[in-house]
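Justification of computing resources. Each target in the renewal requires a structure prediction run like the one illustrated here; the chain below, 316 residues long, is used simply to show the kind of job we budget for.
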Amino acid sequence: MRTNEQEREFIRSYAESNDLEVIHLEKVRSETVGPARHDVWDVHCPDGRWWVVTNPAYLYSQNDFKSVEVVISFHVGLMTRVMFQKKAPVTEEASELLPGSWRRWEQAAEALSHGDEAEDFQAVGVRLRECLVSFVAEIGDPEMAPEGEEVPKKANVVAWSRIIADTLAAGSSSAKTRSYLKSLAKESWEYTNWLTHAKNATSIDAEFGVQAVSHVLEMFTGALIKTLRETQRCGDCGSYAMAGGVCRECDWVDESYEPPEEEPREPSDEWKKHPCVPSSDISTLITPDSLGEELKPNPRRTTSAPDKAGNSGESR
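Resulting structure tokens:
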């Protein structure tokens, strides 16, 4: 098929970014599905042949997907699932700062995807309220309350969000951040309360609530990370570039640094019981959860390699 140098260079760069040495590549199929066009490239490497399917680009071993028809059908289905998947829009490390809150947010987003009636969308509002209550409970501490003032009740999201914002964004230089955090939390709390009681709620109303609460969690998570980073500065030059108790800028060593205890990770129950699709043409399992945010997997981890005889599963 006709291609231009820009297209070829993009596919070559993508393959090389996945640790593949490209010997030859050519476009073998171009198909429009809905609003998106997907190109299929046949990429030859010393250790076998691969498909690269675009929009977004993803790599598949020809050992696992023998034909163009199967790989493009699999890719379109997989990317459609990814597009509609509701996951915390932050890194795993960041989500662990508010694990209960993000878990409840994902439950609310999941409930939205299955909702049909106003009552379903009201239920999304209930879950979002629980999410915000969980958020202030996970960060809030009675010691944050100003001296001489009564500590708010645990479910008083507006009062606690003000206290948390004052703590995480203290000082004159953070005045705008502090004001924004307070306003954001207050407006989102009031919106979820309205959604909970809106008898004519629609899916768009619920989607607004899901996005609003997601933004609250993202902003407060960011403020929390900023606060934690500021406590991990070099004691000599003031740099934030601390790694393992050592400053990468001036080699200053923090004598009080204690390395975290690493615990071996067991495979999750979901991984142990994941479903498989028996087929003579597909011999790998890829799910939306395994893709990651960048959609750039390590092909040697997610797909099979050529066998010892050098068979590369070339398309038939």
